[in-house]
Each structure stands twice: as C-alpha cells, then as structure tokens.
Amino acid sequence: MLYINNLTKNYGSFTAVNHLTLHIPEGDLFGFVGPNGAGKTTTIRIVCGLLRASAGSVIIGNTAAAAGSREMKRLIGYVPDFFGVYDNLKVREYMDLYGSMYGMYTRDIAKLTDDLLELVNLSDKKEVYVDTLSRGMKQRLCVARALLHNPKLLILDEPSSGLDPRARVEMKELLKNLHSMGKTIVISSHILSELSEMCNSIGIMNRGQLITAGRIEDILQQLSGGSRLCVRIASGMDNAVRLMKEQAGLVVESVRENEMIVSGSITDEQISALIGRLIQNQVILTGFYREEGNLETLFMQLTGGGAQ
Amino acid sequence: MRIKWNPIVKKDLRVAARSMRISWGLFAYEALLTMVFLIALAVIQADSRSIYGSGNVYNHLIYLFPVIAIAQVFIVTLIVPILTASAISGERERQTLDIMLTTCMSPFSIVLGKVSSAVVHILFFVTAGMPIMALAFVAGGLNWMNLFYFVLAIILLSVLAGSIGIFCSALCRRTITAVILSFAFYFVFGILTGVPVVIDGALRQWEGVGDSMLFLLFNPIVFFEEFFMQLMSEESIFGSVGYVFSKSDVGFLTYHLAKGKLWMLVSAACLTATAVLFMLAAAWKVNPIHSSAGRRPSGKRAK
Ligand SMILES: Nc1ncnc2c1ncn2[C@@H]1O[C@H](COP(=O)(O)OP(=O)(O)O)[C@@H](O)[C@H]1O
Ligand SMILES: [Mg+2]
C-alpha cells in the first residue's frame, strides 16, 4: 500500500530522515514509533506531499503519481499532530469546508457528515462551534474530516498526544474500528505501549533511521526475553527440574517454590513434547508460557541513547 | 447544474459574517465616506457663495463625484492589503494551510479563493457606499452605465491589490511585514514606474518621451486617471500627448496607444496580467514542493 524507498530529508546539514525504506501492506494498522525528534513527522509530511524529500521516493497504492499530486492526495487522509481551528465555524460547516475542498457537493457532504460524525461519536455536536470542543473531540473530528474523501490510507501523527486517558481509549477504539473496516492506518507515537496493543505491525525509528520494522510478534521474537520460559508447577518440582535439565539446549535459571525460569532456544514442537513428558512424570503444571518480551525494554535497547 | 463556490470564499464570508471585524470595518468605511461627502459639500457651498463663484451651487456639485470616487478608491486600496496580508500567513499560523494543502485544492485555487474573498469583501464596502456614490453620480450628471464601469474599475484595482497582498502574505511569516511589503509594492507600481519616463523626458530636454512611457501601462494610478478622464469627459491625457507630440517624440507604440480608449484598455490588460503573475508567484510560494526548508509551523507543541 505504502512504499517508502530510500527516503532522505536534510535540513541544511542536519539529516532528519536518513535512507528510510519501509513497506506497509494493505490493511495494516502500522505503528510508527520513535522518540521525539526521530523524524516521524518529517516522514509523514513527505508522504502527504507537505514537504519535499531530499532524496528517495514514496509510492502509494498502485499509482506512480508524484508526491503531492492530486491522485495521491485522494488516497491519503491526514490527521496532523496539531489541530487547526477556525473561530466561528460549526462542526457541520467545518466538514462542509473540507468536503468541498475535495470537490464534493454540499448535499453529498451533509449526508456523509452525518455518517462520519456517528462513527466518531460526535453526532450531537453537529451545530456546535469547533473551537468549543474538547481536545479529544477535536481530534476525532479531525479523523472524521480526514475520512471525508474515503481515503485508502489514513495517516495520524501522534493522535493521542495531549489527550486524557479516556479520550485515548476512545481514540484507540475508533482506530481499531476503522482498521476492521479495512482501512490501512499508520499511527505515529513516541509511546510504544500505546501502539503495541492495537497495531499489528510496527516500525521503530531513531535519529532519522529505521531500526526495525515488522509484525509485532516477529519483533517480540527478537527480544532476548523471548526465549525465556516460565513454568508454574503445583507439585513434582524435582521431577520437573530433572526433565528440564535433560532437555538439550535448555538452562534452568532459577527455581522457586512453585515456579521455575528456563532459558535457551527451543522450538514449539519441542515445547509440546516437553509438556507431554512433564505430565507423564506426574508433574502438575499450572502454567507454561514464554515470557513476553517487554516492548519498552526493546525500545530503550534499540533506540539507545536517543530516548530521553 | 449546481455551481461550486470556491470553498475558501464560502468559509471566509461565513467566518467574517460572525466576527465583529466586518461590522466595524463597514461602520468606519461609511463614516469616512460620509465625512468626505460632507466636507466636499461644505467646500462646494462655501465656494459657490464666494465672490468668485457663480452663486449656483448646482454648477459645483459636479465636483462631488470625483472627490467621492477618488476617496473610495483610496480607502479600498488601503483596506485590501489589510484583508489579504493575513490570508496565507493567518492560515499558516492556525496551521490550517497544511490541511488545505493535503486536500484536492491546488495552491493556485487556494490563492484565487483568498483573492476572491477579498474582492467580495470590497464589494460589500462598495455596495455600502453606493447610496452616497449614486448621489454624487447623479449630481455629477453621470449615467448608470458609468457607475457600472466605476465598479468594474474598483474590482480590477482590488484584484491587483489583493494579488499583491496575497503574494506578500505567502512570502512573509508575519502579517505586519506582509502589509508593509504590500505598500512597498504599491510604491513600485504607483511611483517607480514613472521614473523612467522622467529620466527619459529629462534626457530629451522635455521635448517628449520615448517608449519609456509604456512603463506607465503598469501604473494603477495612471490607469485610474485615464479611466476617470474617459468617464468624465471622454478624453485621454495620453491621447493629448499623442496630439501634442509627434510620433518620433513619444515613440511609435505610445503614439498609437494614445488614441481614444486604447491606452486605458491595454493598461487594464497589463494590470490584470500583473495580478495573475502575483497570484502565480504566491501559489508557487504556497506549494510545499517548492520550498526546500519545509516551513514547519512555528507553533510549539507541549510534550
Ligand atoms: N523545518 C525544520 N528545520 C530544521 N530542522 C527541523 C525542521 N523540522 C524538523 N526538524 C528537525 O528534524 C528532526 C525530526 O523532527 P520530527 O520529524 O518532527 O520528529 P518527530 O516527529 O519524530 O518527533 C528534529 O530533530 C527536528 O528538530
Ligand atoms: Mg512529531
């Protein structure tokens, strides 16, 4: 859906984005993570045609259209990291303004506005002045606005920065909802945990470079903690420790009253065989799981000194 | 077929209608125009009663029209930069320009929309001043067609002024700088276009001027003067130049342009072309693809 190829952006001698190559497949909910100043906004602005790249290219969909061309703009819905307000404009008129900027007729926009406001849960605010809305509402209105022309790709820059927890949850629900409707969505954030729950793939960026990108599960696999097994046992700990030690490639790290931590590389087939043997040897298992890789740890690890 | 307004015009009019600014502007405009009218009337009355006057006030009322007309053009050209100077920089400050640029609006239609909304605002002012204008017209013995031409001339001048204002707004970050730059451009077009003519004339010991006079085609003041002379007495100062001087004295082109209404029409075309050029330049400046620095709105975000 979105192909970014060797994208580079220099501000004078400062390189904000450095040879970024990224592919986001259709239907993805992609999280774009990096500390402040990593170059996320710069990348997004280039994709939206608001900034000229120093080098590299951006391709959206199957079009070979140039960045900033009308065909490309039709494919993108952009929710910036700020909310531009006009005084003295009502929600309905705000939608009408941007709808007509896409060449739609007022009557068609009015119909669409009803549906979109319903979707973002702002139906009762239609006749309210935009600048009196709360920040979370403005943000959702901004999403509705970005959906007016039915774009294939929705790009949100830090959509939840400055929102209170409740508004964050509402925003998250809205985005999940949109994802299930088949939109390709890109969200940037400097908070990883915020994205890890809803995105199916992420890219981590630091100092203008893409450090890693891929499906969330795959990225978790890269974690050192990903190969640690946590085994909870009700009884038969001695047998369990013996069996674990017999298993090639496993090292028992620690043993507590009813829990043991084992590390080493082991395949899923080996795990199921191991569980079978444990049960045969009268070990009562109450839990057996791979220790979840901590994304925050990974993030700090990968972004090194960049994160404050 | 349904007519599509430029969305920016629609929005600007809506927002302006709800703000106090336009009401105060109209009030100030009306007050100023009425004041000019009353002063002109007082002067005319005093003049007609003096020993040099004919004693008949109606003979003098004909001067009411030029005074009111010039006052109106003067006020309008001063208002336009104030209306347009914040058009682009204001959208930039509000950070709505970026959103606009991600829609299907081309930079040129954004600029055109902004100029149009300035012209529509000017038409509000002109309409508000219409009763006084009409009175001065009738007193001046002019017909309704002339009033129509006068409105056309005001539209042309405000399109030009608006284009200059928009260009300055696209160029400058701050609104006040844009206003000042607009007036600098006024100076260039209103005064500096006359400089070559003066130099040329001096070199020829005031025996005539050459084609340097063609610079004056781009001078809005000269255009308005020509327009006004045509309106009042169907004569052209440049026409007179054509009669007084020989072809070799004023240059071939000027000599032919100076016949009848030709100068005025060519000048109108030149001013329109200038306005379009300013709009194109503004659109070029607004288009983010052309600015390598990538003007990030300076509004700081709390993190
Ligand atoms: N217009 C600009 N001129 C110079 N440097 C800029 C400009 N815009 C952004 N930068 C720099 O580029 C880097 C990346 O910025 P940005 O893309 O906004 O980061 P992020 O969105 O990931 O926080 C930052 O170090 C920032 O200071
Ligand atoms: Mg950012």
Q: How would you sum up this structure, described in words?
A:
The complex is a heterodimer of chains A (308) and B (303). Chain A has helices at 40-47, 70-75, 91-101, 106-119, 135-146, 165-180, 192-196, 216-221, 237-246, 268-280, 295-303, and strands at 2-11, 14-24, 29-33, 55-60, 76-79, 153-157, 184-189, 201-206, 209-215, 228-235, 251-255, 259-263, 284-290. With 308 residues, chain A is α/β, with parallel strands linked by helices. In chain A, helix 3 packs across helix 4 (106-119) and helix 5 runs parallel beside helix 6 (165-180). The mean pLDDT of chain A is 85. Chain B is mainly alpha-helical and 303 residues long. Chain B starts with 6 loop residues before the first helix and ends in a 17-residue tail after the last helix. The model of chain B is unreliable at 297-303 (pLDDT under 50). Classes of the chains: A alpha/beta (308), B mainly alpha (303). Chain A binds chain B through residues 9, 11, 36, 42, 45, 48-52, 54, 67-68, 70, 73-74, 76, 78, 80-89, 93, 97-98, 100-103, 105, 145, 149, 161-162, 190, and chain B through 2, 4-5, 7, 10-11, 14-15, 18-19, 91, 94-106, 287-294, 297, 299, 301-303. Magnesium ion (MG) is lined by residues 40-41, 81, 157-158 of chain A.
The fraction of residues in strands of chain A falls at 25-35%
Strand fraction of chain B equals under 5%
Derived from helix and strand composition plus strand pairing, the structural class of chain A reads alpha/beta
Our Rg estimate of chain A from Cα atoms comes to: 24 Å
Number of helices of chain B: 15
Order of helices and strands of chain A: EEEHEHEHHHEHEHEEHEHEEHEH
Low-confidence stretches of chain A: none
Strand order of the largest sheet of chain A: 5-6-7-3-8-9
User: Globular, elongated, flat, extended or rod-shaped: what is the shape of chain B?
Assistant: globular
**Percentage of residues assigned to helices of chain B:** over 70%
Q: Which H/E pattern describes the elements of chain B? A: HHHHHHHHHHHHHHH
What's the count of strands of chain A?
A: 13
- Helicity level of chain A: 25-40%
Oligomer: heterodimer
